[in-house]
Amino acid sequence: MNTCLVCSARDVEPEHFATEKHKKNSSLKQFALNKSQFVTNRKGVAAVFCDVKSSFGTEFGNKDGKIKISAKPNEKVEFTFLLSNESSMDDLLITYIQLVHKQFNFVMANNPFGAGSKPRLLAPRSKLSDKITVTFSSPNIGQYETPILFYFVKKDNNESVILMREMVVFVEGSQTVHDNIISPYERKGVWAKELIKSASSDRCDDMFQIPKNCKQIYATNLKLPEKASQREKDLSADIRKIFSIGITKENYIKFFHNVLWYEETIIRVNIKKYNMSGVQIVVQHSLHGTCYKLEVPGLGEKRPSLMLGDLLFIKPHNQNEVMFGAIVKEINDSEAIIGDLHPKFSQHYRAGALFDVRFFMSRVPLERMHHAVHAVFTEGHECRIFPKETNRVKQVKPIVNFFNPLVEGNLEQRCAVERIVSGTADTAPYLLHGPPGTGKTVTIVEAVLQLVLKDPSHRIMVCTDSNSAADHVATMLIKYAHMFKSDAWLLRANSKFRVWETLPECLVEYSNGSCRANFEPVDVEEFVTYNIVITTLSHAAKFARQSRSRGMAHHITHLFIDEAAQASEPACLIPVCGLLRPRATLVLAGDPHQLGPALAKEDRISNIDILGEKQHSRAVVFHGVLSKEQKIGKSPSYFNMLECEIVQLYVRRLVTVHNVINKYLYISSYFNMLECEIVQLYVRRLVTVHNVAMQDIGIVTPYIRQVYQIKKLLKEISYDKIEVGTVEAYQGKEKRIIIISTVRANCNLLDHDAKFQLGFLVDDKRFNVAITRAKAKVIIIGNPLCLEKDIKWRMYMQRCRELGTYHGFDSFSLGGETLETVVEDIVGTITPMLQNIKIAPKKRVRRKKTQKNQ
């Protein structure tokens, strides 16, 4: 089988390369590769000039043959082209002028040089008296592009000359910048002969360092160069063998140690792009002692993503003798306050001095996972990972009184709670999984309450992968606090370094702090007194370490991990191997069809789902408990799992697709200003016209840069209470109304298939998370030319067309033609153009070698 890079198709038969589809894509690719030959004027031969204006002013870009201008909705824009014969002796014939396609509202009326027209002679050093005019107008915000071709023939030798210009109109409410911004970072190595570690360096993260002989193997994606030693090649082959076999009882520890080292290597490589060179730092004195303020552009947008307590290295600029470790103490917008440098650093600091900075990932989370993996067998938890089948069936005791009547009335949820409380799974994990909105977290809450009621001596821990998910579970549990008398009923255990601004006010009295100033660390002796403790998987390691150092026995009787599919298996093992009793109950809840853990290089190893259907006695799949407002039909990724019927009334109200022809920009993440403007328009109408509360609106987008661009626009109109987040941030959350900005849609009708890039949203799990966050209505904003290349989006958008909830540009109604027909016409136009012109390959410019100073 072959891979066709032109059509972006894998495992194609040899016959594929003779198909019309491949020929079409090949023509489009050749056009893309060679169009630079047509976009500049031919010196001494022919030239094309353009004049265009709008209410925003004149054109702001005429680079690479692109004539760019901004205009308001419904505003008429007129492109006027002037043709000139630049030769001093040769006559030129103007034979043909045409738009490459007639879509996107570009109109060339009364074209005197259309098909079948008589060629016009253009004498040497003369200009065409007629003006070639193209008009444009559109009511829809978006980016519209159409090329125009000018065909000339030299009269004396019949040599063809073709020039091309691309007209680009940004239809927008207010003019914005549409050119890429240059990233301030560079991949310049920052190193020194001597490293002086931070004064508060924690030695606890040094036990499972990446083996030195494996670093190069991981960095080269397990593919060593030929010059590598035989020992390195053998080691690389052993690692590849471990990954190819997959998880077994015999290689379990080796497998995950290597996975974590591999992940760490990729993160280290990726973070190098944020190295800074020749920057200033400013000394300041604070509660943390002597610190330094460092300007970090993009920090507010998590590029780079720094957390309090993270490590970085700093050294004098252009000096490689010594480098110092520092700790991030405070983060304020684009500033990081760093401290805990060794006293010797003061000898190198002076006001105005320049320094080089290298950011470094905190190894603490990885070390915690390594410790957990290493302890699976020594602490007797192999039964959780490799459970044995048993014919012994525990009796399920029915529960008479439920806290939540909705759980009592739902057969699957009631069944799950009764089995968990009865301990039917024994030491194997009890699994709860199902689509969004099927009540997995509600079931966990009911089970926790029933366990405390059954026996107050139970010690229950609920862990999640994120603080937001932990806060959500805690908020649901405290609704029943008045039914329990204990003072030590529930603890929301937080890390000092969490984002305290997101802690719900209702949880303050159950938390070990409400901000960094009044944070109180929880000692393990206090920890064991609580009936219920809710924290993150990573933070649970602190209690495990204290318990281990003091020789205390594991005391957790029931461990619940919510949104378990979002966490990696080693992360889930942190509370298991550090705190859970050997015969205690483990419950995993989540949706394997939604997002898994965030990995630095997701394609390096086959994904390993932590959730799956196992024995009936310990697995419940929730099917049919969707609310009416969620019944939008069967999602392609859930197949026949949902027992729901399509209700015309609710679907018509639920889904709106607003398609906008647009492109994205890239700095350190993708963003799309035109989609931001559409989002702002929808938010205004929802709040002012439909009286929707801001806290009921959520905005989901795949890229962090788009998150901050939208936040900035909303803040300008005092709508900053609206929650904006990435797809990952919205896992497990719901809002009454969700607006989805798909962002990455940098494509047009002249792109071959491999150029259509959807990025994250082409992933089934991200698609599922994005479209299932809304309780009442979801509004999707994106470019149809790209979205419809993916079958999920194509099906989804077609359903919206049928229901009348599709707005904006429609690729299915291109002047009465189908998209495929339009593309075929375009190929028919450009193919002769490529065949008749002999295109010389570009000459490589060789740079002169500069002699090094001797």
Q: How would you portray this structure in words?
A:
- Residues 410-481, 530-599 form the DNA2/NAM7 helicase helicase domain.
- By secondary structure, the protein is an alpha/beta fold.
- It has 20 helices and 35 strands.
- The strands form seven sheets. Strands 23-24-22-25-26-21-27 form a seven-stranded parallel sheet.
- The longest helix has 20 residues, at 252-271.
- The radius of gyration is 31 Å and the shape is globular.
Widest sheet: strand ordering = 23-24-22-25-26-21-27
Instruction: Return the CATH architecture of the largest domain.
Output: 3-Layer(aba) Sandwich
Poorly predicted regions? 602-654, 661-667, 749-757, 837-854
Shape: globular
**Share of β-strand residues:** 15-25%
Question: Largest beta sheet, briefly?
Answer: 7 strands, parallel
What is the CATH T-level topology of the largest domain? Rossmann fold
What CATH first level of the largest domain would be assigned? Alpha Beta
Taking all Cα atoms into account, the compactness measure Rg is 31 Å
Q: Compute the number of helices.
A: 20
Instruction: Compute the average pLDDT.
Output: 80
The total count of strands amounts to 35
Structural class: alpha/beta
The helix content, as a percent range, equals 25-40%
GO molecular function: ATP binding; hydrolase activity; RNA helicase activity
Domain DNA2/NAM7 helicase helicase: 410-481, 530-599
Pfam families: AAA_11, AAA_12, MOV-10_beta-barrel, MOV-10_Ig-like
EC number: 3.6.4.13
Pick out its properties:
854 residues, alpha/beta, Immunoglobulin-like, Elongation Factor Tu (Ef-tu), domain 3, Rossmann fold, 4 domains, six-stranded mixed β-sheet, disordered C terminus, cytoplasm
